[in-house]
Design brief:
Layout lengths: L16 H21 L22 E5 L5 E5 L2 E5 L2 H14 L5 E5 L5 H13 L5 E3 L5
Parallel strand pairs: 1-4, 4-5
Antiparallel strand pairs: 1-2, 2-3
């Protein structure tokens, strides 16, 4: 009796179980390794005690009152101005005498941060080189 051979059919299915196993192992490895690679989100801010203290040049002091009133103090003499534009003009007049003087902004605790930043932005837009914030040491 002669046996006839059946032709082999090609297998048209892929066994994906080993691929899923490898994928899950890689997922676990990445989940464990990722927290170790991330740097902590720490911002190192300078403390007031470490800030540069220049005693040789007295800065121009811009004070923002609780009601948003702007006052420029120079060597003990205070001048109240109506708005930021008038403040910038007054500061530029004072800096025409000595251009390297710093300008510090002192805002009342109740003043919105937006008001302080708008004043600083107006001074920076007028090319005032040294503008900073005044803080009270603890």
């Amino acid at each position: 009796m002669a046996r006839t051979r059946r032709p082999r059919r090609s297998m048209n299915q892929i066994n994906v179980v080993p691929y899923i196993d490898v994928m899950l192992v890689l997922l676990v490895i990445f989940m464990v390794a990722t927290p170790m690679m991330q740097s902590p989100g720490v911002v190192n801010l300078p403390t007031v005690g470490k800030a540069d203290q220049e005693a040789s040049v007295e800065p121009l002091r811009v004070e923002i009152g609780p009601d948003g009133e702007l006052t420029l103090t120079d060597a003990g003499k205070s001048e109240t101005v109506a708005d930021a534009r008038a403040l910038v003009a007054l500061v530029q007049d004072k800096l025409a005498i000595k251009a390297d003087r710093p300008v510090v902004i002192a805002g009342d605790k109740s003043v919105r941060y937006e008001t302080v930043m708008a004043t600083m932005d107006a001074l920076k837009a007028a090319n005032v080189a040294r503008v900073g914030l005044l803080v009270r040491p603890k």
